[in-house]
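TICKET: design request
STATUS: open
ATTACHED STRUCTURE:
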């Protein structure tokens, strides 16, 4: 994924009434799909995307209680703003509300598209490197027919160079803001029906560029769409992986010890080619196991003098990067230290914080435990230490 070093914001348009989906059930963006509201599903990939700075939801004036009831607490999420009578007015309200964020680029997405992926978001962002407007689209596969009001076919429409447009649509912030303002101030234009923001850009002589969309990024419009969405979610099996790691090092004469990224004074030291941090070594192996990527020895062989006396935080950082590059999100890490001494409890939070800093994973998802070996075996004789670790990773669902 590229690092664009720009301020990118996202607007989620959720002010519609969803008449075709049936008003009796309430606005479609607040309906529950397999335990989560459509709106919550639609905005989550933007909140999770590393290049999106802030996310703003535009809601209907009557829907604030429904929005608040979702209990959304994502850090990037701004206070929602009230939309207008048309989609164009709602988007303009969102663009105005973002002025204080000073964005360079903005992505505009329909709340009724809950299956947007981070890969698709990235493609739109990448397209904005050299273009003022980018939209994801799919080439038409079906034959098109034009018919009269009675349903009589008048002609077959050539489908060559025809595409169906999706969201999120990405724009240079100043360009799309100016286009929306021009529509508002132009009486003739404001009477037109703009079904998406790309059509407003086209009206303002900003030519959008297409990037590849995805068939999964469907828009929920009718009751049948909702039924299909429920069936799709029910069939989706999350790719959750659990990796295990084990390491042991001998205790030798010394005066300090590295455990889980923290240096502790001790009457002995752990022996090893690197700093012999038994906890980080086990955790590194656990992470590599989640993506079937060998073990610490295959990445950092002890025969390589480059790693003599190396800090083990390098090994853990490498494993974390490998997992993320493979499309994984680390959701939990656990380390159990087996030793007679030193006492681990006074240093547990420092160790958790060290692992959090190295990995970028929230400290609330990191567990450190310790136990003795009841004076049994080499650990019980204080001849060595053992660490066992478990890592849980959720892999990105392929598009």
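STATUS: resolved
RESOLUTION: sequence designed for all positions
ATTACHED SEQUENCE:
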């Amino acid at each position: 994924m590229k690092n664009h070093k720009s301020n990118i914001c996202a607007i989620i348009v959720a002010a519609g009434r969803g008449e075709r989906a049936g008003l009796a059930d309430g606005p479609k963006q607040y309906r529950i799909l397999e335990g989560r509201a459509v709106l919550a599903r639609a905005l989550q990939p933007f909140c999770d995307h590393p290049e999106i700075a802030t996310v703003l939801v535009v809601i209907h004036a009557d829907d604030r209680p429904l929005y608040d009831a979702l209990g959304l607490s994502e850090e990037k999420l701004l206070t929602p703003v009230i939309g207008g009578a048309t989609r164009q007015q709602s988007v303009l309200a969102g663009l105005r509300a973002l002025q204080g964020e000073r964005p360079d680029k903005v992505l505009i997405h329909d709340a009724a598209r809950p299956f947007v992926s981070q890969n698709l978001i990235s493609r739109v962002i990448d397209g904005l490197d050299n273009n003022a407007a980018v939209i994801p689209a799919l080439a038409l596969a079906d034959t098109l027919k034009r018919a009269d009001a009675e349903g009589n076919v008048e002609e077959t429409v050539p489908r060559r160079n025809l595409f169906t447009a999706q969201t999120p649509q990405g724009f240079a912030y100043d360009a799309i803001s100016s286009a929306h303002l021009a529509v508002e101030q132009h009486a003739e234009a404001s009477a037109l029906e703009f079904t998406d923001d790309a059509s407003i850009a086209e009206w303002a002589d900003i030519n959008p560029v297409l990037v590849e969309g995805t068939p999964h990024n469907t828009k929920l419009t009718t009751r049948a769409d909702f039924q299909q969405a429920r069936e799709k979610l029910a069939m989706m099996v999350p790719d959750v992986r659990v990796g295990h790691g084990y390491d042991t090092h001998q205790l030798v004469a010394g005066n300090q010890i590295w455990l889980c990224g923290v240096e502790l004074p001790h009457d002995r030291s752990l022996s090893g080619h690197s700093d012999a941090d038994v906890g980080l070594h086990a955790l590194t192996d656990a992470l590599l196991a989640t993506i079937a990527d060998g073990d610490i020895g295959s990445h950092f062989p002890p025969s390589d003098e480059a790693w003599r006396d190396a800090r083990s935080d390098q090994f853990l950082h490498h494993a974390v990067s490998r997992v993320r590059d493979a499309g994984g999100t680390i959701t939990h890490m656990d380390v159990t230290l087996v030793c007679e001494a030193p006492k681990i409890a006074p240093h547990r939070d420092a160790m958790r914080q060290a692992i959090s800093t190295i990995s970028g994973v929230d400290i609330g998802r990191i567990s450190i435990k310790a136990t003795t070996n009841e004076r049994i075996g080499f650990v019980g004789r204080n001849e060595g230490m053992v660490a066992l670790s478990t890592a849980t990773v959720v892999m990105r669902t392929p598009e």
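CLOSING REMARK: The longest helix spans residues 173-185. The domain at 240-395 is CATH 3.30.1330.50 (60s Ribosomal Protein L30; Chain: A;).
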